[in-house]
Amino acid sequence: MKKLALALAVLALMAPFTPPAFAAPDDTDLGFEAAFYRPVYKTSSFGLVLTGTAIVAAGTFSYFTAGAGAPAAATGVSTVASWVGAGGSYMAGLSTIGGWFGGNAMLGSAILNGISLGTVGGMGSWGALSSGQKALALGAIAATTMDGIAIVSKPQTQQLEWRVVLPVPLDFADDRIRTLLEALSKANREVTAIASEWDVAKAELAPQSPKSKKFLELERTLAAAKARHKAATEQVNDELARVIRLGDSNRTTALMAVIAQNSGRSADFRTLLGRIKLASLERRSYLDYLLAIAALQAGRVTEAERLLRESSQAAKFAIEPPILLAGVVGSRGFASQESKIDEIASNADKDFKSNAYMNSASLVSLHYRIGTMALGANRCERARTAFRKAQAELSTIEKYWSGKDIRNFLDIGEANALHCQGDRPKAHEIFKKVWERTSGRDARELLCMQYSGGCAK
Predict the structure, then answer these.
(1) Rg of the chain, C-alpha, whole Å
(2) Which phi and psi angles does 164 have, rounded to 5°?
(3) Which residues of 402-433 are buried (b: 16+ CB within 10 A; e: fewer)?
């Protein structure tokens, strides 16, 4: 858990890389390869999407953006927030989650509750949910951390709302915009790291005791870092306003649309996409993916599905369109759409090529998402198959070193599928192995909620 929290603070938001001139995207190419160029020396990597390359202009990942007081969230959901926020800070966790989707702690709370509501069909009291319902809700949240897709149910209407975190297509940026974005990325990492130190130091202060010299120095350092972050944010926002007002090239317009989306400005995202000159495009697989997200935001699900299929067909190597497509198709009811979802997974297994571009997700993400949907539909054997496929796609390095949190998710997914099938002894055997390699009371408490069999008190 501490390693995951550290990753939130230190992982780069963008890899500063300038591709060679011959690989630079032109204004007729809005495909995945042009958006996320992979140099030959870059190897494939996979991690939790929401701790990786997604956010540039969404603001600071700390509770300084949250306003006064932690917003209400179900008890079990608050445990997840604390886990994300270094295992102890509920507000920091909610702000981190909200920041992924361009908002603050209030949005983070709404997203966690909304994912849970959409998964189990109604929250009520978290304590009133069965172990299986809690496991389903937390499995859906884990899927979001792996693919950046939050399928949220609105409490008032029960309608689904789609939120997608978008990695920034930095290869669309000219030198000037690249410099602005890299400055903001650096400022964002700096504030996050210092805020984490400040949070720990504050927790160590005795009640009503005077602030220590170390704490006062951290406050000054944090204030200076926040000022730098504010200045960098304003520069990017000014550039976004310029592009909205005056227009620009296709690639700059697409780039700034992503910045708008990740800043919580969905209307500007859709406006900018609508200004792209389609007639001049020779390749548009990435644009169609963005347009599908815009269609989902507007409730045009059929149009979104068509665009995702076109994007997948044009860029068969890319994993992002099939992951979102599987979620869209599955939202109609997994049982009735299972054959279509199986076809999507089969095509992705055959066609995905991580060396074709800088991918933000992987087949692990796709199969885990399918596994959670199958489990929610009580398709136990299909769920286990999906989780085992996800396990098979996790590399040895990721399984034992860099991706231990992901490995735990996958193993608990299989344990839950076995529990669903009625094979309690084998399910508990897997759970016990995960338990033994997990340390810390909070981490084990979360583990108990992730497992359908629960933990004996």
Answers:
(1) 21
(2) -130, 125
(3) bbbbbbbbbbbbbbbbbbbeeeeeebbebbee
d(CA 440, CA 456): 17
pLDDT in tens, 61-71: 332 333 333 33
pLDDT tens digit string along 250-299? Answer: 999 999 999 998 888 899 999 999 999 999 999 999 999 999 999 999 99
- Say how many CA atoms lie within 13 Å of 251 toward its Cβ: 24
pTM: 0.82
- From CA 148, how far away is CA 51, in angstroms rounded? 10
Question: 426-447 pLDDT, tens per residue?
Answer: 999 999 999 998 877 767 877 8
Between CA 305 and CA 345 the distance in angstroms is 15
**347-369 pLDDT tens trace:** 999 999 988 998 888 999 999 99
- Helix (H), strand (E) counts: the chain: 20, 2
Among 167, 171, 168, residue whose Cα is nearest residue 50? 167
- Please give the angle made by the CA atoms of 161, 390 and 441, to the nearest 5 degrees: 80
The residue among 167, 371, 161, 178 whose CA lies nearest residue 289 is 167
Rounded distance, CA 201 to CA 209, Å? 13
Which residue from 326, 274, 276, 264 is spatially nearest to 295, judged by alpha carbons? 274
How many residues in total does the chain contain? Answer: 457
Digit-coded pLDDT (tens) for 185-221? 888 788 877 877 887 788 788 787 888 888 899 999 9
Rounded-to-integer distance, Cα 54 and Cα 49, Å: 7
Helix, strand or coil, per DSSP, at residue 153 = strand
Q: How far apart are CA 286 and CA 359, in angstroms?
A: 12
Predicted confidence (pLDDT) at residue 172 exceeds the cutoff of 80:
yes
Burial of 113 (0-12, 13-18, 19+ CB in 10 A): buried
Give the separation between CA 61 and CA 78, rounded to whole angstroms: 17
Select from 390, 392, 284, 407 the least CA-distant residue to 31: 284
Query: What's the CA gap between 292 and 303, in Å, rounded?
Result: 7
For 205, the token pair is 């202060």
Determine the Cα–Cα distance for residues 322 and 341; give it in Å rounded to an integer: 9
Count Cα atoms within 13 angstroms, Cβ side, for 278.
8
Give the tokens for residue 397: 């390095």
DSSP codes, 368-398? HHHHHHHHHTT-HHHHHHHHHHHHHHS-HHI
Residue 131 banded pLDDT, cuts 50, 70, 90: confident
d(CA 246, CA 256) in angstroms, rounded, equals: 13
Specify whether the CB–CB gap between 107 and 73 falls below 8 A.
no
